[in-house]
Amino acid sequence: MRDVGIIGIGQTAVAEHWDRSIEDLAVEAITEARRDAGTDRADALFVGNMLSGELAGQENLATAIADAAALLPIEALKIEAACASGGAALRAAWLAVASGAHDYALVVGVEKMTDHLTDGVTAALATAADADYEAGFGISFVALTALLMRRYMHDHAARREDFAAFSINSHRNAALNPRALYRQPITVADFIASPVVADPINVLDSAGICDGAAALLICPAAEAGRARRTPVRIAASACATDTLGLAERADPLVWQAVAGSARLAYDRAKVGPKDIDLFEVHDAFSIVSVLTLEACGFADRGSALRLAAEGRIALEGDIPICTLGGLKGRGHPVGASGVYQIVEVVQQLRGEAGPAQVKGARVGMAQSVGGSGSVSVTHILRA
Fold first, then answer.
1. Which domains does the chain have, with CATH numbers?
2. pLDDT tens per residue, the chain (383 residues)?
């Protein structure tokens, strides 16, 4: 397998893009990534998307985007892995380039969610759960996550306000990111007063509905030196899965897919949690951040809340997370989020994160999670 580098990044602002199509957003991000790389070469296009059929009425999305971006007749495929679709698209592209099947591959994650009322989006997101035994009985994705949070609070004597530090951190960092949707800092009092969505999850626990696209251009490390920008190496790419339904797991608070993909990535990159300078966590809900930090070895079981309370997840802490706002602060256009995470790690490793820059960042990790921890894709990048 060949070493692979990221030579170009692009992203749209995360917003409510009511006047733009899903293809428009994807083309903007792709154009920026190619300009950043200083090359128009592309042998294949991998599109991370979850809901284009449900919300945009457009399947065969990769071909539609290839056409709109004037990329025909290259190979173009849509990759779907629920909310991990963006990370899965990069993994598919990495496999293609590392194996020698292609030399230059474009990755774009894109989602258009705001053209529908909340009920319609909630129903679409429920397709990431078990259709027969979860969604089929009317339980929403948020409600499933609320069950996890309530169980965690019971097992570890945690209070609702103990989770506030995660949202506060994400909003603090998003305020430093001009592409983020929620750029307003929040306080513990704001968190406590936030309306409940599915008890005990409140609005400020949850990533918002939005639109956006982010893109990458990757190529073999041997070619990357010719690019306009210094490449960032993909040191590891890994994926693991767990049961789709929560009820099928021996312990719902042990996220095997998250732990498994992180373990594989650590092994391939020859690093451990202490070697990671920043971690882009899939913080769709604050409880997801908690379970992820514990599953990936950054905190012992039941101790992730203390990690946040001590400020260790902040930009100046020993394991900064969600450094440009994460899903909570930047926004969570679901199929695009995994690619946004990689774009942001690249910015950090290039030293281009502005006021959100993590000092001395050399190794970054990003993890996309689909469903209730049922699929996880982890990437580790090196400057």
1. 4-117+210-232 (3.40.47.10), 139-193+234-382 (3.40.47.10)
2. 999 999 999 999 999 999 999 999 999 999 999 999 999 999 999 999 999 999 999 999 999 999 999 999 999 999 999 999 999 999 999 999 999 999 999 999 999 999 999 889 999 999 999 999 998 888 888 999 999 999 999 999 999 999 999 999 999 999 999 999 999 999 999 999 999 999 999 999 999 999 999 999 999 998 877 778 889 999 999 999 999 999 999 999 999 999 999 999 999 999 999 999 999 999 999 999 999 999 999 999 999 999 999 999 999 999 999 999 999 999 999 999 999 999 999 999 999 999 999 999 999 999 999 999 999 999 999 99
The 10 Å Cβ neighbour count of residue 351 is 14
**Quick check: is 322 catalytic?**
no
Angstrom distance (rounded) from CA 75 to CA 22? 19
Active site residue 379: no
Helix or strand run (H / E) with residue 201: strand 201-202
Quickly count: other Cβ atoms within 10 Å of residue 82's Cβ.
Answer: 23
The residue from 17, 102, 282, 332 that is catalytic is: 332
Exactly one of 17, 83, 239, 296 is catalytic; which is it? Answer: 83
Q: In angstroms, rounded to a whole number, what is the distance separating the alpha carbons of residues 43 and 105?
A: 6
Residue 153: burial class (beta carbons within 10 Å; 0-12, 13-18, 19+): middle
